[in-house]
Amino acid sequence: MNHPTAAAIFNKDELRTEWHDKALWYVRNKRDLSAKSVPEWEELRNLAEAIKANVLSNLDNYLIEFEENAQRNGIKVHWAKDAAEHNKIVHGILEKKSVKKLVKSKSMLTEECHLNGYLEEQGIEVVDTDLGERIVQLAKEPPSHIVMPAIHKKKEDIGTLFHEKLGTEQGASDPQYLTEAARQHLRVNFLSADASLSGVNFAIAETGGIVVCTNEGNADLGINLAPVHIASMGIEKIIPKAEHLGVFLRLLARSATGQPITSFSSHFHGPKPGSEMHIVIVDNGRTEQLGREDFRKSLNCIRCGACMNTCPVYRRSGGHSYGYTVPGPIGSILSPGKDLKKYSTLPFASTLCGSCSDVCPVKIDIHTQLYKWRQIIAKEHQLPWSKRQAMKIAGYMFAHPKLYRFAGKAGRAMLRMMPRTLVYGPWNAWGKQRDLPEPPKESFRDWYIKNRKK
Amino acid sequence: MSSRKAILKAIKKNKPELSPLPEMQTFRNDTVDKLAYLKEVFKIIGGVVEEITDTEALPEAIKKAYPDKENICSNIPGFPLTTVDLSAIEDPHDLKDVDLVVFNGKFVVAENGAVWLSERELIHRAAGFITQHMALIVNRNDMVWNMHEAYQKMQLDRPGYGVFVSGPSKTADIEQSLVIGAHGARSMTLYLVG
Ligand code: SF4
Questions:
Q1: Distance of residue B154 Cα from the nearest chain A Cα, in angstroms
Q2: Does A1-29+294-383 carry CATH code 1.20.120?
Q3: What's the CATH fold of domain B32-193?
Q4: pTM
């Protein structure tokens, strides 16, 4: 299903759309307050951007340096060119250790690789332990946001789900009560897991270790108890030096939720005594993106989610409408690189207002990239027929000033005279949830001609 | 070709021209009242700060803040409230009933309330997460302003694990309502001593 169709379904429930919009705007506001409290915010963004530019320009050497240092720290390093190889490597490690149950903390990469389904087919139980992830896992849905996976669900939905799956009281929807139930349920799993898997927020070339950030403490609880830890990372997660963490950790949580830092920022430089630690370095299309000059900067992304929270289209269409692991503005510039045809509507799921680029802590020119994908899609004829026709007509009108002026006049007059039901019919997509502005009596051109004479 | 080789080769082919690393800055702030700032931050992160001038008074203060806790661990040798000896435990799963940990932390960061604990302080990596409550002790002189100073202060890769703890475990995954005590500690108190 393409984005406009999925968004239209989401929009059918107007109250819920309204609520979703507000919930995310609330997070965006918290981000603003938090960013404003740091006088050097813009300097931090510049530093982050420059560090990432250096990383991309020297990525092969940093990966080699990282591997060497990680191995010295007693970590086993694996390389996967695509999702299938990643999944196979993970399964291989688990099989060797006869793992029956794996606890996982948040990792968008394993979502991208569809690891859960793969492991379940091999008979391994996978338990997502981040509360939001557990909610969507129990509901058999993908996450709808990269930081708040269950942001599309109301507490009543979660109450019903937990009643069915975890045996909470029927009708109970108090977040405190539901969180406590999840805590008890997941503790049992933490204590009985044979292995843990985490994502990676940052991998430090200089020291050969990784950093994982959570608020719940679920990553550490899983990793620090189980005898095997697997960390999956995309090649772009590398940063050169430990001192660079200062820049990124100051930006990440403030951009994501407005917190000054996540509750736990954990640094792993080797397995705990008597355990194993593995890192799987994954390409899966990233080197290709690195080769696209106009789009490589999208690899700067530190997955804070700020561009989603601020996006007027994301807020009013929901993460699932994008149909890609990473939704929102950043997903819309990553996905066409994966499959231009399948995701051809995503670069159009934007008003090009540029708010995403303004909030992005690593200064990705998101809206410019959206625009550039549009040009590629238009050139490759991936545009839907209706859009192509509309563009053709518009092009003709702009090329014929007299016709343009006549159409403007006629339009203004018609809008004033026509009954509401005619103007706001199903053909008026713009007017679906809002009113058109009052049509002016005269065009700017008429006004200008009149006033210039004065 | 191995995947390692293929990936490195593809990067080499596709990467842009070398872009220099920027000069790092530490954004020192010598005028800010770090203690006052830290106290404000603790309100946001959901923790509690207590100032204790006399170290002798610590056990009493902790006992008062955390009454009726049975299983208490600490990394302070001879700490009077200790009931479970962390170094005597082999399997971290045996920590599952710990009610309270009392840990000396290395230092605290004023801008975000983060206390640094390495594996040396935690003894067991899981100890700081499996516990129901957490009391951390830091000397008031061991306070840095921001994360840049923090990373200058430590050796990151030895021992193999370290964590910045900023407040108790929390989540807002259900309708953005903040709930304290997701999987880890349900409360975190920082005792500033000296
Ligand atoms: S693109 Fe920028 S704002 Fe969006 S998730 Fe990535 S880092 Fe955050």
A1: 10
A2: no
A3: Rossmann fold (3.40.50)
A4: 0.92
